[in-house]
Amino acid sequence: MSQSPHNMDYDSSGPPIESEISTSAEQLINNNNNNNNNNNNNNNNNNNNNNNNNNNNINNNNINNNNITDMDTNTTPTLPAISQGPILKFPYSLSSLHWDEDHLENKESVYCYCGKEKAKIMISCDLCKQKFHLQCIRLLEGSLQLYGDWVYRFSCSVCAGRESFERFSKNWVDILEITLFNLQDQKHRHVMGVVYDEMPGIDLQQPLSSSSTTKKSLSSSTSSLSSSSSSSNNNSLGNSPQIQSPKFDSVNSIMDPEDQRFQYFSFDQEIVPFVEINWNLLCSDKKKKLHWQKQLSQALTNGRIFKSGLVNWNMNGYWALGTDQLLLKDNTVFKDKVLAPINNKKRKKKKSSKEEERDKYLTKLLLIPNKESLFVPTIEYDIMCVAKENSAPQIKIGPDQLTVSNEKGYRMARASYPCICGDWYFEIDIMDDVGNCRLGWSTSRGDIQANVGYDQYSYAYRNSQGDIFTSGRSQPYSEPYGKGDTIGFFIRLPVTPNTKPNEVNFPFINQLDVYDLVSNEMPPIPVAGEEPQPPAPAEPLPGSFIMFFKNGVSPSTPAFQNINKAMYYPAASMYMGSTVKFNFGPTFKYPPQDLSFRPYSDILKKK
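^ B30.2/SPRY domain-containing protein, sequence as received from the core. Prediction below:
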């Protein structure tokens, strides 16, 4: 089996998890035929009961028709005739469907063997990439699937002659990602007006029947949404079982989706119960050990795709999912990278080069958060602070997440968000006279195991001599500084005709676009057996410049001009015990008097 970033193992423990679910169309038809035969026999044996039998026939037909209502809606094409053999042909032309860029939906709303609309939970075929309703897959009759669970390989019978389905082991990071994704989804549904009562004693791994759930509307304006939701194809074909989580607790009762705390959930009261309730769907290959929650907690800390409530909002024990691309992982090329290969490697049809390149690029972006050497803004932080993951591990960060120090040789600390365009200003207070420091700006390629200004990717102002540094070279600039001084940092990054909209609108852009920006900042990935490619030559940004201020005073000329085009982080490097404190604004001790600027904290405010 191919190795994956998640170290996934093939789960050969047995067939898919069985549970109660709506009866399949084939079973309903067989039951209907049996009922009709029984009624005909009754008619032949006892003519006096003809009326009763006719009534029974009508009732049976009504029951059956109610059960397969969603299978008989007036959408085309219709479900192929059910036979004992596998379905070998779609009732539509697969090649005529027009899919979106990420292959999540098609314009025609045609899916599955049945050709009906897409439901919430769908299973993707690795060969043709079509999406299938869980109930239409005969191999999975009676099975459940959590929303967003992509850790499987499936081949439909049209592609492979018979259906093939394999589940794979999930590690704790995968389990947490799917758990938080479902908790978020349930909370959004709650806000939209459709909620389900918690029913003590119910096995929540089983689909809840209408008798065990009570749908409620939060307001009259959402009652129609609640009604339509209960009768839509998404319930019958969507195989979206009412898998519940514990109620939202008092702290997490924030119901404003615009509030970033909306996405946070209690580890003890929400995350752990959800995993325990849905253990068979998330951890079917794992033995539930006595202290399994400890492994879950460690994965939250080390997973690099989760936001800490303590770090961001002083909410201890709360966590949020930092990524929003889980549904894109249900992708053949991505699975080829992280899961074992599918049994049948024959593809239904050769993809166009454009689609193939898109899948490869999408996979490259999806793998970025798993690379320990890369820091991705927007994943782990909601606030402007010093980012532990964006700094050298030797850096000591104070409880305020603004004060930093370092005991020995030069090491760098960087902020949680960079700037790409605009005029920005922040300050750093010098807290003591111990050691030395070099302060300024750094790109993501700046060496965090060295001082700011060590390479071409960072620019510094040194305390001991008042000179400036980049590429390891010094030049005179201003006065030395020390304890009690406040150093100001101004950067201008003009918008040019070559500036992209995502660069202007950062960080309020699609997270894949954030990954794209991070990817472009990094050197080319080395290919085995080939000579490492040199980094792309630096591209100067016309009109850009950096200025440094000591207690509000700066030389009349910029420290650096036409600096390289890049994403720039506020940065500080300390030596032999030096301690400094960042101030990102909005209030400053010495705001520049002759420059228009925005406080660096405004990076997190929409324009």
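Confidence is low (pLDDT under 50) at residues 1-77, 195-251.
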